[in-house]
Design goal:
alpha/beta, eight-stranded mixed beta sheet, five-stranded antiparallel beta sheet, 13 strands, 30% helix, globular
Length: 231
């Protein structure tokens, strides 16, 4: 990911508009972008394009900058032609020796199978059918996933079978400490959040900063929420 100020982005002719908390979006200047594919995070100055084959996608830069010091939750929304994006990300994780500290999160069973066959040593998180917990757990087991990701609507009876199957349970997302604590009491292992400072300041006894601390939320060039896990 590149580092530019808001002023520099505007000078480059990119029109930006709010798209999420602390996030601005605009059309990528490197190709004929018909939808806002560029995300800029003013607090850090980081920006990147959400299209994996764009020269501004920054997959290599993101992976290289971690240098094994933090973990990565890499959500690959589009497998790419013939799985090219999955292979590219897996190759980079292998190249930079991050196969133990990163995992790929995928929303299609075919993509999970592709990742399993191409790079079985890289952990996978199942995002398939999050509203149907029993089916999602079955898919996670078929694809030998280590993690499963639930939405905010998940309940304790849905989490319990996943924990029983030995799956690490992610929650996407919680920014409020009380909300996060409730989900953890229900059995969630990992909270994906944009407000780690708020969570830590709240002094939640249930939480500690994960050694695999930072995740790429949204896609391979998304923002960097912190992963908080059960202590």
């Amino acid at each position: 990911m590149a580092r530019l100020t808001l002023h520099e982005m505007c000078e480059a002719g990119v029109t930006l508009a709010p798209s999420a908390p602390s996030t601005l979006a605009g059309r990528c200047p490197f190709y004929d972008d018909h939808t806002p594919s560029v995300s800029l995070y003013p607090d850090s100055g980081l920006w990147g394009c959400n299209r994996p084959d764009c020269c501004a996608a920054g997959v290599r830069d993101v992976i290289k900058q971690t240098d094994g010091l933090v973990g990565l939750n890499i959500h690959i929304k589009d497998a790419g032609p013939g799985g090219s994006t999955i292979r590219r990300v897996c190759d980079l994780l292998t190249e930079y020796a991050l196969t133990d500290t990163a995992y790929v999160a995928l929303g299609a069973e075919s993509s999970l199978q592709m990742a399993l066959e191409y790079a079985p040593e890289i952990s996978r998180a199942c995002l398939v059918r999050q509203a149907e917990s029993s089916e999602s757990i079955a898919i996670a087991e078929r694809c030998d996933c280590r993690r499963i990701q639930f939405s905010r609507q998940v309940t304790d009876p849905q989490i319990r079978p996943a924990r029983g199957a030995g799956l690490v349970c992610n929650l996407f997302w919680a920014d409020d400490p009380e909300d996060a604590a409730r989900h953890i009491r229900d059995g969630i292992n990992v909270i994906l959040t944009n407000c780690a400072h708020t969570m830590i300041a709240a002094g939640l006894p249930e939480l500690e900063r994960s050694p695999a601390g930072y995740g790429a939320w949204g896609d391979v060039t998304g923002p960097d929420p912190v992963e908080l896990r059960r202590g």
